[in-house]
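Read as chain and fold; for instance:
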Amino acid sequence: MLENSRVLRSKGLIRDLNRQRTCPLLLRVFCNQGRHHRVDEYSRNSLPTNELQVYTWKDATLKELMSLVKEVNPDARRKGTGFSFATVFPDQRRGGYIMKEIGVTTAGRKGPDDGVTLESKKFQIGDYIDVAIQTARMERRARPY
């Protein structure tokens, strides 16, 4: 189970960040319905087209990022919609990129990964965030009577 940011702070693994005095970073987020983008869709010359640019801090939580995605994606606002977050970063040994899942949140529900921060997952400025959105099904099947 992943530790949340309060536990990591209490252990001294994350320092408190003063958002009033610290300049935010540009976070490039790529959202996709149903699944993550393939890692080969990321290259120096080409990135997935559905980019969301957000200014935030390294202590931003996955719950905060979910809220930002929901602001621009009306379909993702439904209660029960799942958000799977992954970092995408350069592979220093082989070239190309590596994708690493960092947590899952659900709209309208509390979860163990809500408080996970970018910093706690070793996010570096310049890394990308890939979000797989699993839209909640609102329509119910008619019963075959």
About this structure: The chain has one domain: 25-134.
